[in-house]
Amino acid sequence: MKRTLRGYDVVEAASPREAKDLLKAHSFDALISDFNLESESDGLDLLQHARMSHPDVVRFLVTGNRDIDVATRAVNEGSVHRYFLKPWDDDRLRSALILLLRSRK
């Protein structure tokens, strides 16, 4: 992901709790989360939190999980602006990010 987002100021979080703390302390334009976070919650929970607490933050979900329920949940809950399956296409992800960031201004 860091290679894909070369040129952007990227901040990494090791857990959903750390990501939530960073959101409280700093202003971000976008949040990209994996679905599987190896914690008590998943990436959609984190993105849903971001949607409620920071609605202007662009939210992307990246996952290797091909379960249609994950995609359905992401769309129905409105947690994400874009959903990418692993391995993602660098150009498509960057283009979607650029488009959504520009549309916010």
Structural write-up:
By secondary structure, the protein is α/β, with parallel strands linked by helices. The protein has a single domain, classed as Response regulator (Rossmann fold). It contains 4 helices and 3 strands. A 3-stranded parallel beta sheet has the order 1-2-3, with helices on both faces. The model has no long low-confidence stretch (mean pLDDT 93).
Number of strand elements: 3
- Major sheet attributes: 3 strands, parallel
Enumerate the spans where pLDDT stays under 50 for 5 or more consecutive residues: none
CATH topology: Rossmann fold
Beta-strand level of the residues, as a percent range? 5-15%
Class based on secondary structure composition and strand pairing: alpha/beta
Annotate the secondary structure layout.
Elements: H1 16-25, E1 30-34, H2 43-53, E2 58-63, H3 68-77, E3 82-85, H4 90-104
Parallel strand pairs: 1-2, 2-3
What can be said about this structure in brief?
With 105 residues, the chain is α/β, with parallel strands linked by helices. It has one domain (16-104): Rossmann fold.
Provide tags for this entry:
105 residues, alpha/beta, Rossmann fold, three-stranded parallel beta sheet, 4 helices, 3 strands, 44% helix, globular
